[in-house]
Fold:
Amino acid sequence: MKMPVELCQVDDYEVVGTEDLGQDWFRLDIEAPAIASTARAGQFVQVRIGPGDIPLIRRPFSIFDVGPQPGADATMIRLLVQRVGAGTRAMVQLRAGDRIDLMGPLGHPMPRPELDATGTLFLVGGGIGVAPLYFYCRELVNESCAHRYKVLLGARSRALLIGLEAFESIGVETCAATDDGSSGYHGNVIQLLGDLLDQLPEGDAVAGIGCGPHGMNLALRKVAVERDLRFWISLENYMPCGFGACFGCVIPGPPDEPPRYRRVCVEGPCFPAHELPEQF
Ligand SMILES: Cc1cc2nc3c(=O)[nH]c(=O)nc-3n(C[C@H](O)[C@H](O)[C@H](O)COP(=O)(O)OP(=O)(O)OC[C@H]3O[C@@H](n4cnc5c(N)ncnc54)[C@H](O)[C@@H]3O)c2cc1C
Ligand code: FES
Structure:
């Protein structure tokens, strides 16, 4: 497999559409054929904000979707942007016709666990983590895979459940969990996952991918390690460069290997849960 950086393009591209999704969430549609045609779910782009040097550091964003369909004919990428600071504030002010400087696709695609028809793949998301999981589901829908897959989305309350309708609109079985019980399961998404795992017939194969806030990722790792499940967790560490040069994104290596650091941007961003230390 080629290293992600070998397929990476750097250029400026045209914004072709934007949408305010409410609650500080926005969608940006960008005509970027060089990125869209090779991008796979789980990969990300580094966005350069503004024409000058401030902010100097690019900002990483998962590819939320490509259009019209995932694959070599795709010409457009979509980003789901949560407005949190100066960089994202500038991004969500872009309008159709504006240009945006992107570097990508970067990082490895999310894995495809092998499961038979009785197996279930759980896709566990929270916050901005829903972006790569949606692209992943679009790929699974196109490939008509044999096993079941189920999206579990968590948020503090109903209004913050970003992406729920998008998953449902492509026919993916989706369960919501809210801390305040305003939609779906009353509790957090890891508690929901635990309940669903308990209900599965003994012997059924299970795998999963999670992407969410740090606390969710830590809790997911714990469940996966304690129950000895094949889960992967996609990390969203601070990433100054995104292509392996700065070591600004490192996590400790697997606990059973000689001590070393792993760069999340080029070795990940998705890692097997059992390779992650208790704190990462
Ligand atoms: C692999 C990856 C995928 C991501 N995908 C998405 C996504 O799909 N949608 C989305 O809205 N956000 C995503 N993020 C987070 C996004 O990069 C930050 O929200 C953004 O960089 C904030 O920039 P800012 O200038 O608005 O905020 P700032 O005020 O600069 O910072 C606000 C927060 O963003 C974090 N941040 C700032 N710069 C970086 C950086 N270079 N790398 C990582 N985090 C940074 C800071 O640590 C801080 O917690 C992703 C991050 C990573 C690492
Ligand atoms: S962000 Fe620079 S090495 Fe990973």
